[in-house]
Fold these 2 entries.
Entry 1:
Amino acid sequence: MFASTLTCLKKNVAFLAVLLLTFFVVKNAYSQQGIFQTHDGQMHLIRSLHFFSELKKGQFPVRVSSDLAYQYSYPVFQYFYPLPYYTVGIFQLIGLSTTESWRFVLSISTFLSLWFFYKWMRCSFKNTPSLIATTIYALVPFRFLTLFVTGQIGGYFALVFAPLIGWGLYNLLKDHQKNLFGGSLIALGIAGMILSHLLSVIIFFIPLASYGAYLLFTNFSWDKFRKLILWVIVGLGLSSFYLIPFLFEKSTVKLGQEVIINHQDHWPAFKQLIYSPWGHGYSLSGVTDGLSFQVGLTIITTWFISFLVFLINKKKKWLALIMTLTFSFIFFLMLKQSSFLWEIFFPLQYLQYPWRLLASTSLVGAWLTGWILDNLSNKKSAVLGLLLVALAVINARNYTKPWPLDWKTDEDFIADKQNYYGSTDISWELMPASAVEVPKDLGDEILSDSREVIINYIQRPNSGKTRLKFIAISDQPANLILPVWNYPYWLIKINGETVKTSNNIGKIEIKINSGESAVELILIKTKTQRIADLISLSFFVIMGTIILKNTKNGS
């Protein structure tokens, strides 16, 4: 009995180690009832409450909340990373509160990010170096910054999918026996990253593209290249239900029409990247920021050692040099001196905060840890590994605690009507492009150009596609302005017949005839959205069929 238990533990030591690391990272998230305060945490919780409400009303995929923006409606899930809300929704469906669901999801995403990273490391390195590298990936300051300070949940989810893509690239381009497996991981990783945080595609593009290009061109074949392109297309196809409407309907809202946050105001100083005091404040212009931008003392040490190991190693590992230089380039991109590159490579500006690239240095630095330890003798590797882990623990010892005050439950968020029905963003950037006035509170009335119009029986149904209905009685034709924004996903019916709408500075305007008019506001899918949903569904079916067929064949 004891022998079998010991054997089982040995076989599962990596799994248990990752579980232990996950516990270390998230344990303090459970120290109080409710959810801790972060910069973005409140808006994510409020969005999740509205997301689940829309799910219960039958909207799928969920793109719009009819209650946000003080019931003017807001397409927040069409433009802001939806995957975290779907994941939280699973736990809401089984009866957990939204705050409890978020804590579980954060814990699961932490575990998956570490497990996928470990599996990626094991493709190239021995078990112990891989475990130590995974430990470093768990303890990078950026992980705690995102989890407990900024609450930028989309970016935290991206830490799951970056190593998943790396794992897939190795299996597709290096291991000829696992092409299908590797391709599937790439497709799922790309789709997951797009759905979690579209900006992370930019953040992780340089290291993952460098890694993939090396694997592809060291033993190039057109067959591998075609397969890589195919699986990238599959990943894009899986995420089409979000990506296509985002791209093709973005012109209907204010998003991107003006610079809300200028990246030039948020360059971290060199000394801040090396070390800066921990805090729960905000990123400010200059060097008086209230939060830490440090890369991590262990990651910096690993970066320096990687150059030395490459130089003294008789067998030159060019991939390690590429990853070391990639780290150096990304580090440089976070400094003000790289501003000319941000002008040349314009998509970088969408990041708004250059220090968001800390996610990328965390990934590459942890990978370099595994490479260094794998290329030293067992004794040197063990000593250096222990020192690096000790340094990482010391560096992160005070970073694992969330802000201790003002933890909130679901009831607290719902009771705060001003924020619960607000926009859940900082600048109302998803208002219609033609809108000029921001609603201030609930209760805006239906307006008419005639004093003789009487509005009765106003209802907002809790199920189905109809989101607003009322009766209008008038002795003469009149125009009504609804307290709902004029987005393309709204259909108006009067007395059961579809009518045309007008745009009144962003609001829906309709014309009624004399007599009684039963008005319905109905949520529909636009043509673009229907096409996007069909594309995603097709790719899900195709991918599932390929995997099922190859599984039956024993591939």
Entry 2:
Amino acid sequence: MRLFELSTDTNTSSPVRAHRHISIDGLSMTGRRSSFAHSLLNSHFRLLILIVLILCIMIVVASGATAATAATAATSSIPDQKTPVIVTVVPNPVAENDVGEFIVVDTDGVSNLTLTDGESIITVPVVPGETVALSAAPNKTRQRVEIPVRQAAVGLSNGGEQLILNHQSERVHEVTYSDAPEGERLNATSMEWIPRGVELRSVTSTGSADVTAFVLPDTPAIPITAIQSANKRILLAGYTYASPPVTDALLSAADRGVRIQVLLEGSPVGGLSTAQRTQLNRLSNNGIVVQLLAGTPARFAYHHPKYAVIDNSAIVLSENWKPAGTGGKNSRGWGVHAHSRATASELASVFAHDSTGYDVIPWSQARTDIGFNEVLPATGQYPTQFDAELMSVDEIRVLTAPGNAGEAVRSRIDTAEKRIDVVSPRMNPSGPYFYALVDAAKRGIQVRLLLSDAWYDTDKNRAVVNRASELNATGLPIRAQIVTSGDQFGKIHAKGAIIDDRVALVGSLNWNEHAGTKNREVVLELVGDEPATYYSRVFIADWQGYEGTDTASRRGVNTESEPEYVPVLLALGALAAVIIAGYALYSTILSDHP
């Protein structure tokens, strides 16, 4: 009824009402124009009229959009280069009735800000440091944050809210969430839920240093020798642990008075083995601090890093502390011993953060509630093909997940200029890392992937190889291979990359979204010719040694980017389709009303 009243209104000063008047009274107007319309259909000018009409509409729409953008910029009341934003939202704290829920706003020094959820309005104060937490229970919130907290009528729904930050009635930032997990906070920049007790870290540059690059199973003595050299401290972090030689080295270090702490995942996939129980009991029974991340709610889906801080140096590797990994009995792994006080200090900080959380349980307590599985240890014997090498790096950057590792790795892919070689146990052909590699190939970057043949990875990796083969056949320089067990190692377990013969990535990060956002992971980015050359030699040897499993085309590929005129042709084709469709519709309407 309301629409009808508007449509019969003859006040043509309103564009909306005039349009509705035309649409409803169109039959009678069409009748009055029928003879003229049929003359158009029989003329050669009807298509030209449609083209001109469509182009005029496109010009008007584009002009309107430009004008609207300019008007928004012109009416903005925020001072230049000021960007107040909502930083964090905590709707569902672990507390009765959600007492202590809060919102963090970075005012950037701008006054006259308000925050609304559509029901109530809160004034955002300007405080020293410019970042403020707003809470209905500020004393509770102050126990969780180290920024100024101000009293405000904050009442957040666990089911979801739309929060709008305004400046003098102008919207400057908006955050919408749903289903807030208990105890987690929303990072309003990445829109990721961060578990309680996890402090996200930035990528940390620790400068230039000497490093010892090594691979497994070739040189399993490197981690043992490093532990044997310790004088003051050993902080060993891992996913699983079942290595008798490492246990022997740690016990010997403890006898020398070295302070030792071991931190492991409490619920690895497949559970803990009896071999792990034996080695952890040996450590714990001799006074070494052993802890598991096994409490609930867990801060990380899995504690998955593999590193050790040894005095003022640090070892970071892709392999677990067990015979198949650091023991050199099976897996192809990459590792690096960084002789860098700054790198050791950064990883010691990571260890301190992770080992003091509410979900950390002493081994002596945890072992009473765990069921253990009998697993036979790896016993493979492999020759040394690549010796460890001492070398210099121009810069070490410490990457950690959750927080920065995934984004940093993809950023390196996005800025590659020549070549990317990746070794990984597995990859998702529909995931962000594979998409990033495909985008790199579209830019003409040569991309190669080495993947594992482990039974639990085979299906997904075959999909990656097949997809890479399809893309390669279209001219993209991307190839993938599944590496089968052989004389040099058992299975691929390394997680690394060489980019532009200048950057090497070594660490625990599996290239999937879950690892980058939910797991604790540690990666060292090594910038310099020497480490890139070392790991590249290993990659090429592994690639050539298993080239028979590559299903990609062997023909030469065109590495040039698509011609610049292709998008123009596509746009013209789309415009032509619109014109034809419009013409067909116009003719049909007229034919229905003779």
